[in-house]
Write a structure and sequence with these properties.
The complex is a heterodimer of chains A (10) and B (212). By secondary structure, chain A is low in regular secondary structure. In chain A, 0% of the residues lie in helices and 0% in strands. The chains are: A little secondary structure (10), B mainly alpha (212). The interface between A and B is medium-sized, with 9 and 24 residues.
Chain lengths: 10, 212
């Protein structure tokens, strides 16, 4: 699930 | 990190620097929408709150700080230092028509109902419409200085490169951030009309971009 991804994009 | 995202971030930085230097050197913000710059400062503020909670990389942290500083510096030039040259008459887009739907949608459509996640989602949706007051102002005045069009060109290029970045990441990593992608596609579409005018008028050396 995307919210587990670190928000690595600016 | 991939070349599309890196060059996209560089284009974004170039756009912001072009605008800042244009206002700073001409000591005027004529033709610039202060509202769009306020919205961009809000985008960075609500998106980069994780600056203090999640360390991704030096690059990530440095770029976030640079974007925040330049965004607020640009807003302060427009609304304080060179406020006499701010054309509030032409900068008449009703931003509440953007903020209310964007805020509402970020509560409805998000990945998790937590403050940080909702603020991040708000910043994603807001960024896709933040340029509208600027584009509206250009249609209202019927023209834009060429330096302003270069600012918009690099901003649009940054968004287009991000689309390529998402295609690449989906293909390479299976990464797909639906909210960011859908919002990013909408945002890039808003630049299409501008790109057409930019390539047909500004790059033809007509200097100023005058709308039909």
């Amino acid at each position: 699930d995307p919210d587990a991804l670190p928000k690595d994009e600016l | 990190m991939n070349i599309f995202r890196l060059s996209g971030d560089v284009c974004h930085l170039v756009a912001i620097i072009i605008l800042f230097l244009k206002i700073w050197r001409s000591k005027s913000c004529a033709g610039i929408s202060g509202k769009s710059q306020l919205l961009f400062a809000l985008v960075f503020t609500t998106r980069y709150l994780d600056l203090f909670t999640a360390f991704i990389s030096i690059y990530n942290t440095v770029m976030k700080v640079v974007f925040l500083v330049l965004a607020y510096a640009t807003v302060s030039l427009i609304y304080f230092r060179f406020r006499k040259s701010y054309d509030s008459e032409s900068d008449s887009f009703r931003v509440e028509f953007l903020l209310v739907p964007v805020a509402g949608l970020s509560f409805l459509e998000n990945y998790s109902f937590t403050p940080l996640e909702i603020l991040w989602t708000f910043s994603i949706y807001l960024e896709s419409v933040a340029i509208l007051p600027q584009l509206f102002m250009i249609t209202k005045t019927g023209e834009a200085e060429s330096i302003t069009t270069h600012y918009l060109f690099f901003l649009g290029l940054y968004r287009t490169l991000y689309l390529a970045n998402w295609v690449w990441r989906y293909h390479e990593e299976g990464f797909f951030d639906q909210i960011a992608v859908v919002s990013g596609v909408v945002q890039t579409i808003f630049y299409c009309d501008f790109f057409y005018l930019y390539f047909t008028r500004v790059l033809r050396g007509s200097g100023k971009m005058t709308l039909p």
